[in-house]
Structure formats: C-alpha cells, structure tokens
C-alpha cells in the first residue's frame, strides 16, 4: 500500500516585462506568482498540484502523512474542513489525484470515467485592447483553430470607459470574423480586486447590456451581476435569450448545489484549483447534467490548473469546451506555464491529454529554483 511520507509547498514569482494588464484588475501585473504542491509517497513517487496559494495549510500536514493517497474522498473531507476554518487548499487535491494516477499507472481522465482523452478549447482573452486590435486577435484565434473566443469587458471605470466602449470592441470582432467564431462575454461584475470599490451593475444595467449582446449573437454572458444576486441572475436568464454563466470564484460546493437546483445559471464555471478540487467538482458535473445545466470550468491559473480542469472535463465527457487562458503577447503559453518543463500546446483548438499516469505534469526544476520566493 502506498503511503504519503512528505508534503512540500513552494512559492515562485516570474517577473513580467512587458506587464500584463488584466481586464479584471486595471493595475498592471509585473509578476506572476505560482504555488507548487508536492506530495510524495514511500516508493518515491511525487504528485503535483498548483493553482491557489495554499494559505492555511501549514500545520495540517499530519492529517495526510501516513495515509494512502488513493483515499481521495477521505482527503476531500479534510480539505473541506480546512477550507471552512482557514483557506482554500484545493491544489492539494490535485496533487493527490496526480499521485494516485502514478500509483495506479493511469491518467486521471481515465480514472474519472474515461469518456475522452482530449478536450475542445475556447480561447480566453484577458487584455482590454482597442476594437481593431481585438478583431486582429480574433482572426489569429481562428487561424489557430479555436472554435470560440471569450471577450472581456471592463471590471470598473478604469477599463475602456464603460460597457458601451466594450460593445464597440465586440462589434469590431463580429464585423471582422462574422459567424466563424462563437463569442462569449465576461462582464466582470461578479467580484472585485481588493482595492476596487466600483459597484457592480444593477439588474437594469445588465439587461440593457444583454440586449446589445443578443444583437451580436453572443453565446453566453458571464457574471453580469454581483455574485450574491442569485435571484437577479435567474431573472436575467429568463429575460434574455443569452445563456447566463458564472461561479468561477464561488467558494463552497453547496452554493453550486443551490445554483443548480434553482436553475439560476445556464452555465456553471467552478475551477478545481479554487473550489472542491477534482473530487468535489466531479459531484457538480453530475448534478448539473441531471438539471440540464451546462458545466464548463474556469481555468485561469497556470498550466497545472488548466490540466487538472481538462482531465475532469475529458473524463466525464460532458464539457462542450474548456477555458484556455491565452492572449499573446501579454499572456502567452510560456508565461502562463512557466513552472512546467514545456508549456501546454493546443492543436487546432484541442488539448490532448495522452496516456501519462496522473495529470501528466513535468516541472522545470531549474526555472522553479530561479523563481523561488
């Protein structure tokens, strides 16, 4: 029987020059932080996870040392208690799945059901570019084989100058590429960075924007209201032909359960690195399926987080497409995946997960040494 013998958590920082100005932040990001979790067993195997800062985990290592890494439901319960009392430590769940795959010799996608070994991707942009530059980027995504693109709206007044300017960028894309690309819109109204005190849209604001998005044939409207306004989201869903999406930063699985039971969203977007891990989000897949709600994970962390969400999506086989954070040059695959020996590479808008045991992560140890904080 495999037994956990050690857990190591390290923090890393990659300088960003030029800076990355994320649509949801406004303050230029001059570095990108990554936390790496390593769980080792008594036979020298190592499971790897990443995606959140692991705040609150220190001092709880003894709850896992000596345990079989494959007892994933037991570990999930412990992590859910840590989540309640301290912080989000779900990268630990990812590392345990990776290690369990290495113990059993199976890729995680097969352990989760084996419906598929690859996932279809949509290109998720992050930068607020001028309308013509957004249209240029859309054309590049089409050339690379992506079937869909997510366009960001400004989270606050520090962006393009309000939603009307955001709509102009969307109009420029649609005028350039026609219906060759499915378009989603992230309204960035669900949450704010700590320093940003701008209020979220009201219901009437969101409905006005929805009418513009309907005209432009948008596939889904993401986070159009504050995360607490579930009733408003449901009313908006009923008032527009657009699919209403959200939930990327939702902290508890029971909140998703309620969202699904109430049919408050058309699309739920948990991220295994931020809520519930693979073990918890697997539950949501089946709840959503039975309720006729679309499940498609948020995955804006690093390549390890993208991989973990991809394995869940492929294994259960119910995801039309997966978010692929990718917006050259500010958010390249090389920047996003700097902890890894090779950045993830999509092929014509697909991510192939292959047959490597676990999550298939190979770390760049020299880069990690150089970037360690």
Automatic annotation (TrEMBL):
InterPro entries: Enolase-like_C_sf, Enolase-like_N, Enolase_C-like, Mandelate_racemase_C, RHMD-like. GO terms for molecular function: hydro-lyase activity; magnesium ion binding. The keyword Magnesium applies. Residues 131-243 form the Mandelate racemase/muconate lactonizing enzyme C-terminal domain. Its cofactor is Mg(2+). CDD domains: MR_like. Keywords: Magnesium, Metal-binding. GO terms for biological process: carbohydrate catabolic process. This is L-alanine-DL-glutamate epimerase. It comes from Rhizobium lusitanum.
